[in-house]
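batch job 7 of whatever, protein = ATP-dependent zinc metalloprotease FtsH
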Amino acid sequence: MAKDNKNIKEKKPKFSPYWIYGIILSLFLVFTLFNNSGLDSGNTTNPTQFFNFVKDGEVEKVEIVNRRLAKVYLTKEASQKEIHRKSKPTSFSLSAAQIPNYRFEFGELEIFQNELNKIIEEENLELEPVYLTEENHLADFLIGILPFVLLIGVWIFIMRRMSGGAGGGAGGQIFNIGKSKAKLFDQNTEVKTSFKDVAGLEGAKEEVQEIVDFLKYPEKYTTLGGKIPKGALLVGPPGTGKTLLAKAVAGEAKVPFFSLSGSDFVEMFVGVGASRVRDLFKQAKEKSPSIIFIDEIDAIGRARGKNAMSGSNDERENTLNQLLTEMDGFGTNTNVIVMAATNRADILDKALMRAGRFDRQIFVDLPDVRERKEIFEVHLRPLKKTKDLDTDFLSKQTPGFSGADIANVCNEAALIAARNGKKAVDKQDFLDAVDRIIGGLEKKNKIITPSEKQAVAYHEAGHATVSWMLEHAAPLVKVTIVPRGRSLGAAWYLPEERLIVRPEQMLDEMCAALGGRAAEQVIFNKISTGALSDLEKVTKQARAMVTIYGLSDKVGNLTYYDSGQNEYGFTKPYSEKTAELIDKEISDIIEKQYERAVKLLEANKDKLTELAEVLLEKEVIFKDNLEKIFGKRPFEKEERENLDK
């Protein structure tokens, strides 16, 4: 019997807000009916015909209603005429005498009265208009309540839209605006991502795996007196795999996993964010042990008090305050673990970062060459590739690439192979994909004059020549004068992955970057705007040497970099005299490297010209072409050993 009662309760019909919409429509129709018509309405006519009826003596009585409507009653003889025979409509209970033969609306009452009186006098008629005032109580009532009903309907519609309820019968969702929007992943939800799908990130994976193990086997840690961390913050550049790591945790942990974004807490209504935080932790505690994952937590976790215009009642700060209380305050539950991800850890509130809230900060950095190989192997699984594809070579060709970039390379390589009609993805497809991602799409049909093409060729040949002559410059891969993206040409290098950089290495890179403009000066004795990106690069490097790394003899072992601030703000941390010294030192460093590049190119002007001619002929040249012209580099062996390492 209890089971039957339960079923009865489950089948209880829910209130549907579409009833509200039906009521509004019905009220509107009834209002229209009673306002624009009546039970005693006859056939309509117009003032001109009415005045003709009066002249012919066919009108027995005329009633003026509410100073705008005329009801016309004809004489008995006139109503028998064929033209008026259909002018007497039937009604429910009114006698025929009470029903007007015609009705019409007129404009200005005084004009209508003057015209009617004029006809009565001219025809010597005994016709006196009757003036009436009729009140339609139902119409007045509907007019009074209609705005309120419409307001209620619009409010219900907005609430449903904001709460995410779009189907009928979901009336309870109207008041779900303060409920959490977190997606729940548990044993009933199939999550295919596991730690096997996360290549590289060994340190980060080990730390989050420890949290999963604690939830699975808590006695392993509690027997030694250990406590589970309350929070883990994943920090790193975009595309390094922070969210992927969280998906793996959801797939590996056999506990409820709540996932949502930081922006899901933010709403236009005051107090909604804090309410959603409370509801989220309430659900997590009910299903504990559990994990909460907040992606892009910087949406609500920014440092408080930075914006003076927001005031103390800022909605985002209220949401953050509630989150701080839930993570570590009275009544918190230790069986709820909070994971979060951000690439802006520098702007997060200090109270959020302290021990007891986010106990662990897990740094997810860009992968090194070994980790890139593992990531390539993961993303190459679904591709049809050639058997001789070397993943070691691919990993060395993609320094500085994140996991997302590598996934994009694999996808682009497959698309390029399909575009060329191949049955398998080969090495060249991956190289083309890397070029496509770094430099942009090739524009072989771009209109360029012969003089511009020559200038571009010498510019790129200058980069290649100077970098070939310098010991610490990055090894050259290829040079092209085919327009790609916003550039008219490019020189591709394979930079060495260094953990620390020495001054001579930075200076050699700056000199190689200025080789393009130096080549224009040496060959044409004039320069162009083509070196914009090169100048931007060397200026940033020189400024970093002087103001950040303390590598300038004149400025000394000082740094004006503050890790807690991205910008200097309104005041610089040095005097005007020091600013002049910094500017002069930056200029001196750049000009010295430019003169160095000019001297190198003047000493090898014939080889520079030969290289540019080959580049104009083939449009794309590789390392082999440079070896034919310049011979092997004296430090080639040392570079090869570093790359192999």
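notes: Residues 1-15, 90-94, 164-174, 637-645 have pLDDT under 50 and may be disordered.
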